[in-house]
Write a structure and sequence with these properties.
about 270 residues, mainly beta, Porin, 14-stranded antiparallel sheet, about 10% helix, globular
Length: about 270
């Protein structure tokens, strides 16, 4: 009898505490889609897998046309502490085809992409609510296929910021500084990126728009790119810890891809 009473008390305590724990869990928040980086951090001990199912881009000028396809853009996140998460990313298949408009000659490179590892640490509001700020850094190792990988290790630092504009709209900012390889493979240089976006929820959907500007200060050929990006995220009612997302990007200058489209999924465990 005493054993049965103890079991009943434990079961009752668990039934009461489980909803309380569920209420304290942070809202689902993914890095996908879009080029901006969210300021949210995973709960300690939780995993999240984000996968780009397909991404295609096209860029053309008077001399060449470049088409790029990615599949299996994998991004894994793990909550190390209540304020810090570990990140691991790799593109499992990448293909780039360049066509000479004058001769029709084609040059194709394909294979697995480089492996990246990073950390994100919350400076304010790790659940992404209110004014939320985080510091993020990453390192990329040249582990990809020979025709795809970069020339040596690269890295970068980001400062994601999320600002509520009112009850419906939010503003996100992601300044970034990277240390990347020179185009001739000899030495390194800095690259600078800024992403500014707005977003709003509509029931099961969240829609957003971003402006992306990136300047690569390559000593051989410095390039500035800019795009206008639209994003859409659908959260299934029966799966609050999952999403399906879509992205559509439009180039704003000649150095940027003319158009890019992607679709992916994310799931928290």
């Amino acid at each position: 009898m005493r054993t049965l009473l103890s079991a009943a008390v434990i079961a009752s305590a668990l039934s009461v505490s489980a909803p309380a724990l569920a209420q304290t869990e942070r809202d689902f928040c993914a890095d996908r889609p879009g080029k901006g980086t969210p300021s949210c951090v995973l709960d300690q001990g939780r995993w999240q897998v984000e996968l780009g199912l397909f991404d295609g881009a096209r860029q053309s000028d008077s001399t060449t046309k470049t088409e790029t396809w990615d599949a299996g853009d994998l991004f894994i996140r793990y909550g190390l502490t209540s304020l810090t998460e570990l990140q691991l990313g790799v593109t499992t298949w990448n293909r780039e085809r360049t066509t000479d408009r004058a001769t029709g000659a084609r040059d194709t490179a394909e294979g697995i992409g480089d492996l990246s590892m990073g950390l994100r640490h919350s400076l304010k509001n790790p659940d992404g609510s209110g004014l939320s700020v985080a510091l993020s850094g990453f390192v990329t190792a040249p582990t990809g296929a020979r025709a795809i990988r970069e020339d040596g290790f690269e890295g970068g630092a980001l400062l994601p910021v999320s600002i509520p504009l009112n009850d419906d709209w939010s503003l996100s900012l992601t300044p970034e500084v990277d240390w990347v390889s020179n185009s001739d493979g000899d030495g390194r240089h800095a690259a600078y990126t800024m992403v500014a976006g707005v977003g709003r929820g509509f029931g099961q959907w969240n829609l957003g728009a971003e402006i992306w500007i990136s300047h690569d200060d390559d000593p051989i050929d410095a390039v500035t790119q800019s795009t206008f990006d639209l994003t859409a995220v659908w959260t299934p009612p029966s799966l609050p810890d999952a999403q399906i997302d879509f992205g559509l990007n439009f180039g704003l200058n000649n150095d940027s891809p003319d158009v890019e489209f992607g679709v992916g999924v994310a799931r928290r465990f």
